[in-house]
Design brief:
By secondary structure, this protein is an alpha/beta fold. The protein is built from 15 helices and 12 strands. α8 packs antiparallel against α11.
């Protein structure tokens, strides 16, 4: 494993374990498989584990595994304060104490304000006493580093960087988001202030690996050296000295081993002009096909009317990037062949989803586009047949 030492104190593995999407057994976390993967990660040098209060079951799973194998001191735990759930000052301690209990620890290495959108929200937290609270926890050694995670535009990110003496920050960044979100400008400003940067969504929720348009796949296939799309995406990040840790939501042993291999052989400045030209070509191929920049993070959910927003956007993008027939079939299966439908036309334009979308997507507008794309007369006939087939079916 390669390590970087951005704060001159902690030696961080350049590959971090993103703990949002642990393997599942049914609807619950598959603890046996998760334990196997986490232990393998630690044995092979990964020491940064990123979770959050709202990642269902994640903090408890980590705490259980770390305690069982007595490996707490071998790792850095990063978790996040759900400031959007805080109504009064006492809520801060309530959530934090619950997180310590879940994680079975008495301190947090890296503590983030989760999805901090702008200075106005930060000022609201200041009014609730967050500054004194953070200082007291830091002085007591209960929180080692204080940071924030961010989705939004470059300007608001840079304003947040100046609003507090942050120990680190976390941004969405990949070769498709070089000039969106915090972007390369935000990355470099953070570095200029000696603020370590943790990277999330390095593969854009898997979009830079799965369902790439044929033109992009052909470009990667012809490139020298031979690398997978995931490897190209990760190496683009580790090529930059300002990147401290890249988080990957590794939910299979195969993915874990592959990412460790890549992290162990990546270095700053290894990519030349030829490789940079390849990324430019791939970006052009992707931009020609992708209609909605949804990463599938799920923060827009639950929809009050049950719309599977990430799911319908995925089908919508596939219909342009790959095959309309394939996308239409998936749309039927994923929205209509359910006990409770989750298709795009269920949207009542309430806008709740848009207040939570890290990508600031015009979700209501795009859901109308999805409806026009898929819910035509043929869809209505198929939907009626499905409804008739399952109408009156006894419930178990």
């Amino acid at each position: 494993m390669n390590y970087r030492n951005p704060n001159q104190t902690d030696s961080l593995s350049i590959l971090g374990f993103g703990c949002l999407r642990f393997p599942k057994k049914g609807k619950a976390i598959d603890m046996e498989e998760t334990e196997r993967e986490i232990l393998y990660a630690i044995e092979h040098g990964i020491n940064y584990f990123d979770t959050a209060y709202i990642y269902s079951g994640s903090e408890e799973a980590l705490g259980t595994i770390f305690q069982k194998h007595n490996c707490r001191e071998k790792v850095m735990i990063a978790t996040k304060l759900p400031h959007y759930l805080i109504k009064k000052s006492g809520d801060i301690d309530r959530f934090f104490d619950e997180q310590l209990k879940r994680l079975k620890t008495n301190y947090i290495d890296y503590y983030l304000m989760h999805m901090l959108p702008d200075v106005n929200v930060w000022n609201r937290l200041i009014e609730l006493g967050i500054l004194d609270w953070l200082e007291s926890k830091k002085q007591a050694g209960i929180i080692k580093r204080i940071g924030f995670s961010y989705h939004g535009n470059t300007t608001a990110f840079q304003e947040l960087l100046d609003a507090y003496p942050w120990d680190f920050c976390q941004i969405q960044y990949n070769y498709m988001d070089e000039h969106s979100q915090a972007g390369v400008a935000g990355l470099k400003k953070a570095a200029s202030k000696n603020i370590p940067v943790i990277i999330m969504e390095p593969l854009r929720g898997g979009r830079l690996v799965n369902n790439l348009p044929k033109k992009a796949l052909d470009l990667f296939a012809k490139a020298d050296p031979k690398r997978s799309p995931a490897e190209w995406a990760l190496r683009w990040l580790w090529n930059q000295a300002e990147v401290s840790v890249v988080l990957s939501g590794m939910n299979s042993m195969e993915m874990l081993k592959e990412n460790i291999r890549i992290a162990s052989s990546s270095s700053v400045g290894e990519l030349g002009e030829k490789e940079m030209h390849l990324y430019d070509q791939v970006k052009k191929a992707l931009n020609d096909k992708i209609k909605v920049p949804c990463t599938g993070c799920g923060y827009c959910l639950p929809c009050p009317k049950g719309v599977d927003i990430p799911g319908v956007f995925r089908c919508y993008n596939v219909s342009y990037a790959e095959s309309y027939k394939k996308a239409f079939k998936e749309y039927i299966m994923c929205t209509t062949m359910r006990d409770k439908k989750s298709n795009a036309s269920l949207c009542v334009q309430c806008g709740k989803c848009e207040t939570h979308c890290p990508q600031t997507i015009e979700i209501r507008k795009q859901l109308k586009n999805v409806t026009r794309r898929f819910e035509h007369p043929v869809y209505k006939v198929v939907s009626a047949v499905i409804k008739k087939r399952f109408q009156g079916k006894p419930k178990k």
